[in-house]
Amino acid sequence: MKILAIDTSGLVASVAILDGDSILSEYMVNYKKTHSETLMPMIAEIIRMTETDKASFDAIAIAGGPGSFTGLRIGSATAKGIAQMYDLPIISVPTVDALAYNIWATDSLVVPIMDARRNQTYTGIYEYSEDGEMRVLMEQCAISVEELVEKLNSMDRSVIFLGDGVVRFKELIDETLKVAHKYAPAHHSRQRAGAVAVLGAKYYEQGKYTTAEEHEPEYLRKSQAEREREERNA
Amino acid sequence: MKILAIDTSGLVASVAILDGDSILSEYMVNYKKTHSETLMPMIAEIIRMTETDKASFDAIAIAGGPGSFTGLRIGSATAKGIAQMYDLPIISVPTVDALAYNIWATDSLVVPIMDARRNQTYTGIYEYSEDGEMRVLMEQCAISVEELVEKLNSMDRSVIFLGDGVVRFKELIDETLKVAHKYAPAHHSRQRAGAVAVLGAKYYEQGKYTTAEEHEPEYLRKSQAEREREERNA
């Protein structure tokens, strides 16, 4: 099957085409431009470069959240648009799961940390089985780094951190985490649509997909605008 | 420092820009077009998308071989051209080392296998230290898969395979390798200029680079044309 994959959950915009067992193309840009400027040109670029027939996709896989609200909305709108035009299902892959899949088949726990503002991180805890299957030990959620560190100290296993939260939280982690830990190098540390595509194909086989109309991003938290409205109304 | 990284050692063309601790962009195409058609447009694309000043690079990192002779020559010629225009050093990263760096911080041995034709594979054996540093246990070389399997059986540790040789050699490996082993998923299985860039930055710090004039690809074996000429002359 052929999957177009999109990740706009963070500062990074990443797109990929998975065809059966191969990634045909993957393209990531980590730059201050907005996703509304970059995403469609990036998709057009990899489709053109691989001479892919736009009608040949079987599904769209997307990092479905959490993440930047604007980023998720742009990714979701784009995915819905393409999916509706070509009558394709949308596979929503949890953002933190896809990020964890950057690190594969390690004996350590894999813990992505995204800067979620308001002193929280979007995170989750993952491990790999002997045969390389990723297992979710703590589902993606928005918590404080203090709470995450407490949890990891209680699990007493070595940890690999990755994600844009490393820059923000490294000092706090180094001061308070008692277990051995390290940080992923640059080429493994940011969102990759390739990981979204490969996980997306697994989800698809398990029947985990929706129609374009049904798809909604998973924000995990309320937006600033919603919180402010609620505060005004309270 | 800012590095432009190139990998054209296999069927895949991959380019990346590393800026300090971040990959600004990474772009991979795994398609039947020749590298002479794809490489320069891909470099131009990521430079344009990240609004990178062409004069701002500090070095070019390249997967220096082994690999496809034509691929290596195109990559090398392109790197030399850019490096000479902008007076930059070239960092030659062993192709198989960069491929191994796709898998990070695992307890298994990491063994890239590239299809080298003539019943050989370009391969090497790697492991990770506790702190995530990659160590070379067997330097990249061209050997038969039978010889590789014998070596791995004697080492008695679990193995992760990746690379374009998996498709070709999987059956033989599964039949003859006695240790636990698995194959990397699609998003970790092919050359990535991001890995070339990150390893290249380490090499640069260690003073391992040359001038554009000095740079030559490391073919590891003689080309078909050279072998045929030698056979005629013998």
Q: How would you describe this protein?
A:
- The structure is a homodimer of 234-residue chains.
- Chain A contains seven helices and ten strands.
- With 234 residues, chain A is an alpha/beta fold.
- The first copy, chain A, has two domains: 2-95 and 191-233, Nucleotidyltransferase, domain 5 (2-Layer Sandwich); 103-188, Nucleotidyltransferase, domain 5 (2-Layer Sandwich).
- In chain A, the strands form two sheets. In chain A, strands 3-2-1-4-5 form a five-stranded mixed β-sheet, sandwiched between helices. Chain A has a five-stranded mixed β-sheet with strand order 8-7-6-9-10.
- The longest helix of chain A has 18 residues, at 69-86.
- The model of chain A has no long low-confidence stretch (mean pLDDT 96).
- At the A-B interface, strand 3, helix 1 and helix 6 of A face strand 3, helix 1 and helix 6 of B.
- Strand 3 of chain A pairs antiparallel with strand 3 (22-29) of chain B.
Short synopsis of the structure:
Two copies of one chain form a homodimer. Chain A is of the alpha/beta class and 234 residues long. Helix content of chain A is 36%, strand content 26%.
- Please give the share of residues in helix of chain A: 25-40%
* CATH fold-level assignment of the largest domain in chain A: Nucleotidyltransferase, domain 5
Shape of chain A: globular
| Biggest sheet, spatial arrangement of strands of chain A | 3-2-1-4-5
Write the element-wise H/E pattern of chain A from the N-terminal end onward: EEEHEHEHEEEHEHEHH
Total strand segments of chain A? 10
Low-confidence stretches of chain A: none
CATH superfamily of the largest domain in chain A, by name, is ATPase, nucleotide binding domain
Largest sheet of chain A: 5 strands, mixed
Mean pLDDT of chain A: 96
Biggest chain-to-chain interface with counts: A-B, 46 and 46 residues
Computed over alpha carbons, the radius of gyration of chain A is: 18 Å
Structural class per helix/strand content of chain A?
A: alpha/beta
> What is the CATH class designation of the largest domain in chain A?
Alpha Beta
